[in-house]
Fold each of these.
Amino acid sequence: MNEIMDIGRCLRSHEGVEARNRVEVLIPVGEFDVEATFESGQCFRWRRVRAGEYIGVIGRSAVHVQQVLQRALTDPLAPLSKARSGKALLVRLMGEMDPQEAEHAVIRYFDLSRDYPAILRRLRRDAAFARVAPRRAGIHILRQDPFEVVISFIISANNHIPRIRRILERLCARYGEAIRTPFGLVYTFPRPEVLAEARLADLRERCGLGYRDRYVWRTARAIAECSDFASWSEWPTPILRRRLLELDGVGEKVADCILLFGFHRLDAFPVDTWIARAMRELYFSDRMPRVREIRACAVERFGAYAGVAQQYLYAAFRARGRVARPSREAATAEEAL
DNA sequence: CTCCAGGCATGAG
DNA sequence: CTCATGCATGGA
């Protein structure tokens, strides 16, 4: 049984969807930073191939993204001056489409037409925020596929980011469609109907989902059977939020992540352990507030862009926490002093 | 070995 | 309504 499935997988993998057209677009991006955005915890499936270079999927196309200095590209012989050359995004899409729709898809996915520097300036009017947030608006909120975000953040609950990535990788390799690229195979995210047909044991054992197997399966089935999931994006945020909370495995925090990362509701403010710590330190003088209280505080201070503030706070505190967390050796070394 | 991870569902009070 | 508990898994 399993052997047969494995062979089936191999065949499917090697068939792959042949990438016929390759469209290349170069877009000036201002302060946007691919690396900061991809490593900010809002997406899990972009694979880093080099510094500032990633491969992933947008829609049903495999995509290679590279952050470049625009001048270096238009005039390769000109001296590379960081000050005088603007940042740009060189994007190669593998799939059938014309350059114009490719450019539109890229601008939309990376939210490049929004003025993030202006948003950051507005957020930085808050003194506490300004103290810890960066000056440059490197992180954008991506416009990811809603279903992918739903499943991804169900898996994210009580889990580590490296493990979330590996689970999603296996899930897509098993249930998504393979696309051949010069960097190896990449997979589309599985459609709801496909995940709904999966076996629970397969999700648990092969993909490593653990106890979340039934959450993923039930939610995939609910969305597959839901005739109007495509139009959820048109609903007002409070109604959409209530609807998301009905999905199995979706609580308040995950619902807010889905609103922010899947439906681009920039006022949604997911409160996880890191944000709770950050907000507590910044605004509650180290007393432990309720999650409700934290969200209310964020909405009051950051308003329509609370979600953007959240992403910058999350990145700042996580970067700080990783180096600041004392290791066992550091602790004993400290005691030895 | 224990602790923890971008929490959630469940049941008790 | 609030609160406590168990939960698969794997990296630190």
Note: The mean pLDDT of chain A is 88.
Amino acid sequence: MPELPEVETVVRTLEHLIKDACIDHVQILYPKMIEGDRDDFCRKLEGEHFRRFERRGKYLIFRMDHVTLVSHLRMEGKYYVQQPEEPYDRHIHVIFSLKDGRQLRYRDTRKFGRMFITDIDEDFSHFNDLGPEPFDEAFNAAYVRSFRKGKKQPLKSMLLDQSFTAGIGNIYADEILSACGLRPGRSCARITKKDEENIVNETRRILSEAIAMGGTTIRTYTSSLGVTGMFQNDCCVHSQKICRRCGSEIHVKRIGGRSSYYCPHCQK
DNA sequence: ACACTGACCTGCGAGC
DNA sequence: TGCTCGCAGGTCAGTG
């Protein structure tokens, strides 16, 4: 499941592979993948060049000369750069044929991903609800305090809330709380000033380590270069049976509709 | 305003 | 073996 580190890896990989490539034409095999007018989508992308590659939270942003393509991988979305003669299966939903003969293919077994285009100058009203990036200095202990004020939701739900900070998903939320020694079900109203600092610092530490390793792979993620993340081997609690710190049995509890893994001994 | 639930999808594994 | 059922999870609409 792509979270911030995986999306960052995809952005960097695609920049390496298709920077300045020109789109010849676009085929949409599953129309619901595209938000807005599909004909417009295809027509406006024809002849455009992939110029800059950015990420905002879990969104991929491809800047062209006249339009911007925004893509969200949700759970299982992946991009591949392949030759037209390479076979593809029924999970390929969008094909960008490039003028150099290659194809950028979007594959998504569960069809949850979405993409859309905006004008180049659009200020991305789409992103208005996203909180600060974890590495932005606006994400700090004072911000955590102001965000949680008046709220009683579980810490896990707060970390998953993209308006809190953009890019954290289920796996990293569990790992961050494990590193902080806080149970996922703990109310955000009942943490200390030190906990606020820990949440900020551990979020940055864990995400940057994961980016350095090229993202996590638990089930399906591989980047278009075929790079497979290694962070899964470093998970302390998520999908684990035994705590890597103390050896206790890991508990699983549904919080906010998500499976949440924690160590009852290390996390209070 | 906040918090929770179901829908969107498909594949996979457990249980009968 | 073959079926059904629950689960996986990011986001958003709907509800209390």
Note: Residues 1-3, 58, 72-76, 110, 112-114, 160, 162, 169-170, 219, 257-259 of chain A lie near DNA strand C (CB under 10 Å from a C1').
Amino acid sequence: MSAMNLQTIKVACSNCNLRELCMPMGLNAEELDRIDEVVSLRRKVKRGTPLFRNGEKFSSLYAIRTGFFKTCVASEDGRDQVTGFQMAGEIIGLDGIVNDQHTCDAVALEDAEVCVMPFDRIEELSREINGLQRHVHKIMSREIVREHGVMLLLGSMRAEERLAAFLLNLVQRLHARGFSQSELILRMTREEIGSYLGLKLETVSRTFSKFVEDGIVEVKQRHVRILNTEALTHLVNHETCN
Amino acid sequence: MSAMNLQTIKVACSNCNLRELCMPMGLNAEELDRIDEVVSLRRKVKRGTPLFRNGEKFSSLYAIRTGFFKTCVASEDGRDQVTGFQMAGEIIGLDGIVNDQHTCDAVALEDAEVCVMPFDRIEELSREINGLQRHVHKIMSREIVREHGVMLLLGSMRAEERLAAFLLNLVQRLHARGFSQSELILRMTREEIGSYLGLKLETVSRTFSKFVEDGIVEVKQRHVRILNTEALTHLVNHETCN
DNA sequence: CGACACCTTGAAGAGGTTCAAGAAATGTGG
DNA sequence: CCACATTTCTTGAACCTCTTCAAGGTGTCG
């Protein structure tokens, strides 16, 4: 990977509008300044392009500034599993720490920009700034807990429940970023949703259609409007009962 | 939770025979000594008893000295998902860091003993000992990667493949601890295996029977002998084909 | 505008679940 | 130490959900 296709810009976290999302709280001015040093540069990632790939050397974590990513792992025989969808303010790359190389692909689903944070520097600085150390630990722990939730979904929910949980999760995260509580644009294909949810794309499509029939959502391609959040919540929290 | 039912013993990691499994490598003598301070005490956990429970305050990570655990999460409506099985040398409790409380149950599947490592102290010490800091990060990253693997399994494998992957994973970890490559005793019920693998206990049982018919394994209750590791590997790595 | 990727829907089929019954192991108390 | 209760495991048969295969429709981008 050459440095040629990496657009780079120097920046500062201390006045980034995503600060509350990706930075620790309760730092004093001096600490905030120092944390700026963590972000070495920014990098633009074109839609459909990988930020990193399975097998690539690990060196940095990435904070998403704009855009939308998917991460996916592959088995030896070429099976593919989407392990998550990430949006502004979220951190990707944690998988690479164990073995000093990435074990999944991170692909931009729309033109994106990330802050590159060399992990050496994160470790260095988090030895000195307790709040940063704690923050890093929380981010990793949060990812572990998130994955527990996905395991619950994959292991014990039926198609409708999975899709309902997926939509609620997406819209909730978008809402936390100032977007609508009820409207969203899916940045991923039915196939990618299916991969994430352990379903075939046809099942995803059919389940969407069922939700539309039931008046729970409106769907126009990738535009989704949630008409009845309660119904979705109910689907997730009260098994079967249909 | 009173301290009465916690059996406690003072100990030292520096001469623990699990050192290579749960401690960072390449420390000098002084650093090793200091790491002993991390383990405040040991605690015995009786079979069927929780080490910690969902909702409990988080304060420590636990290194398993002896015994075998399962961790499981529950959804609001009482669905239950086993998220992992842990054995000697492995660390549990990472889920608690984000919100200062545990989000899953850890239950001993046989009488067990754990080293209690207050997380405050881990953080303190890992600010001073780079090797420990890196080690903590690796442990968390490893857990994230492990869960990616489980997601792949749950999202894209069929029953036989799941059980094959499960057996191979177990026996490989046991082998790393000096046990047989081909024989193992399952510490968990069919139902717990099923929960972990996203299958019903009947399916687990039937799949075991199929493996026996095919001469891949011998099964007598919880005693399993693997007769044909290759066949299991093949099942995992080459989808379907029959 | 045409090519390509993406989405929807139907019909048939497979894999896993559910329900049920019985067998085997395990634990308990007398 | 044995008898009994309980838990765990196995197996069968019917059923159901999701998948597979196929075809056509819709949207998008150069």
Note: The helical segments of chain B are 19-22, 29-36, 119-128, 130-156, 159-176, 190-197, 201-213, 229-237.
